[in-house]
Amino acid sequence: MKKTLLAFALPLVLTSQVAMAEVTLKMPGNFEILAAQHLEIKKATKTVALPEGDQLVLVRFDSPTNPHSTGQSMGYVSSQPILIRFSANDGEVVELLAPRVDTQQDVKRFAKNPSFELTDTAGKSVSFDSEKVVVSGSPLMANYNDILAAQIAPSEIQTLPQPAVITASSQSVSTVDINQLTPAQADQLMKDLYQDANKKRRKEFIRWALGL
């Protein structure tokens, strides 16, 4: 009987210990997590739980063009993905803090060159490295887990790699469920696809849109 109880209890204890060995990474309202080294992220999110230790994470600034608009009719402004590298201990909450942006001009300016800091549970600064990863093509079609994976091998050489240009179309792309997109995101996707199309396809699209 004791052996049976031990067989049940031991996996529970080990599971509990593994569950405790987590680092929580949190974003403010105008930032999002795109991908993480130790976790497959299917959709951009604001908070993730990661195993303790060294971290490689892709984040980006993502804000309504008018930060005070409730309708968000003017769409969104996003930065290029930013690769950040930091270390955190078991149980820590690491939070990204960014300056406040209040105007449309501030949003566009900040998206070109985002700045931020990381803090731990006690509010102390967390040391980190960061670099911009330039991705061409539609942001909605990019597979950020694959893009991060392409950065991990070089990053194992003690220093972060030099900024790289990655073409989203050359990566594996994720399937986009149109029904899950907001009207603003659907409009942005249509614009991105139109801008990426050649002249012939653009003419065909216009003829289709006009019912010709």
UniProtKB/TrEMBL annotation:
Pfam family, one: DUF2057
InterPro entries: UPF0319
Key words, A-Z: Signal
Domain of life assignment: Bacteria
Signal peptide: 1-21
Family (UniProt): Belongs to the UPF0319 family.
Name by which UniProt lists this protein: DUF2057 domain-containing protein
Organism annotation: Photobacterium indicum
